[in-house]
Amino acid sequence: MFENLSERLSGVFDRLTKQGALSEDDVKTALREVRVALLEADVSLPVARDFVKAVQDQATGQAVTKSITPGQQVVKIVHDALINVLKGEGEPGALKVDNPPAPILMVGLQGGGKTTTTAKLAKRLTEKDGKRVLMASLDVNRPAAMEQLAILGNQIGVDTLPIVKGEDPVAIAKRAKTQAGLGGYDVYMLDTAGRLSIDEELMQQVEAVRDVATPRETLLVVDGLTGQDAVHTAENFDERIGISGVVLTRMDGDGRGGAALSMRAVTGKPIKFVGLGEKMDALETFEPERIAGRILGMGDIVALVEKAQETIQAEQAERMMKRMAKGQFNMNDLKMQLEQMIQMGGMQGMMGMMPGMGKMAKQVENAGLDDKVLKQQIALIQSMTKKERANPQLLQASRKKRIARGAGMEVSDLNKLMKMHRQMSDMMKKMGKMGKGGMLKQAMK
Ligand code: GDP
């Protein structure tokens, strides 16, 4: 069973008590289990294969963090890789609804949850984003579907386009557009007809509607429980209609979430929302972390590994502190420190972890140093030769120019960096002389 991936992996790694780097064999063994788990979670075979291969290259040789097993470490690596695949560009859940009235085209198969999702989304746009929304049903073959949208609209307080008997979908789309313009709506949503399966007539109809509406967003609504079928549906709709995003419904069910991964890998289109029930507010922004956790079914391990990694970072900071206390602080140290600062949530987070650095954290804050500046400083250090990094005072004016240019910066930026390094290194020396007690005293002042 899928739930047992964690047991499966710990079984594999029970025999391995050694710590250190992950060997190729360790990783291979673990990833075989991961692959099976992915398939059981409904990830398609080629996607699972590619994914495992990418993770394998990434994991081999990675240091195993103390206090967790290699198996757990692999799971964390897999988890992070899953999030990477699942993440689309831009803000999750963001929709292009500027330039009113912005058309949103809702497409999908019958029974996938299209009408329900249209209403849920209209409610969200109204309540969360303060938009005025008009909904229109284009499902002329199923009067009940048109009625259903009107009922939902009533329930959530969102206007629907009045039903006119005998009108075809393109005519309804045009009328919705006109009405949205005249009525001062920000958004109009077109709930297209679904079929039980993809057929030519359906596609032609949706295409014709798309051409008159020129939607800002074309959202495909698919049932997340249908796994691979959902992926095929997405592929088909994307090829024919061109979709801008996906809404996965019935994620409140016991689906494994694998469809999400395949869908993303196959279509490259972002999953924007997930449906989590029949109620009108059961629609949430898609969160890659949650789906990744669901696919792996082991959030606890991921949290454990994250915690262990935090400990390691604290250990590293302590080691660096010791070196600094001895007065050893060159540009490489500074670079490492800058990199860690970025990793650990900025300079202040880092300084806060180092004894005696409380004061400096304040200075850093006042100087307005943020990640961008940190990255620029790293680039400057990277443009230096090994010798120059060890001994930055050797830098002559001509080299300074080259280095600054190499990093796409000005000489004045380099001078600032060098000044910072000098100040830090002086401070380190002073603190080193004071010894541990002295440092603490200094920190308490
Ligand atoms: P359409 O044919 O694609 O328009 O599908 P409907 O919107 O009519 O939905 C079909 C059924 O699925 C309805 O009973 C909905 O209440 C239900 N449904 C839609 N979305 C979800 C969801 O996210 N979770 C659950 N559990 N049911 C849903």
UniProtKB/TrEMBL annotation:
Task performed by this protein: Involved in targeting and insertion of nascent membrane proteins into the cytoplasmic membrane. Binds to the hydrophobic signal sequence of the ribosome-nascent chain (RNC) as it emerges from the ribosomes. The SRP-RNC complex is then targeted to the cytoplasmic membrane where it interacts with the SRP receptor FtsY. Interaction with FtsY leads to the transfer of the RNC complex to the Sec translocase for insertion into the membrane, the hydrolysis of GTP by both Ffh and FtsY, and the dissociation of the SRP-FtsY complex into the individual components.
PROSITE patterns: SRP54
The name this protein goes by in its record: Signal recognition particle protein
Residue ranges occupied by any SRP54-type proteins GTP-binding domain in the UniProt entry: 270-283
Record bears the keyword RNA-binding: yes
Organism listed in the record: Sulfitobacter aestuariivivens
Reactions it catalyzes: GTP + H2O = GDP + phosphate + H(+)
UniProt key word Hydrolase: yes
Any one GO molecular function term: GTP binding
Signal peptide: none
Subcellular location(s) per record: Cell inner membrane; Cytoplasm
PANTHER family referenced in this protein's UniProt entry, alphabetically: SIGNAL RECOGNITION PARTICLE 54K PROTEIN SRP54, SIGNAL RECOGNITION PARTICLE SUBUNIT SRP54
One GO process term, biological-process aspect: SRP-dependent cotranslational protein targeting to membrane
Similarity comment text for this entry: Belongs to the GTP-binding SRP family. SRP54 subfamily.
Subunit structure: Part of the signal recognition particle protein translocation system, which is composed of SRP and FtsY. SRP is a ribonucleoprotein composed of Ffh and a 4.5S RNA molecule.
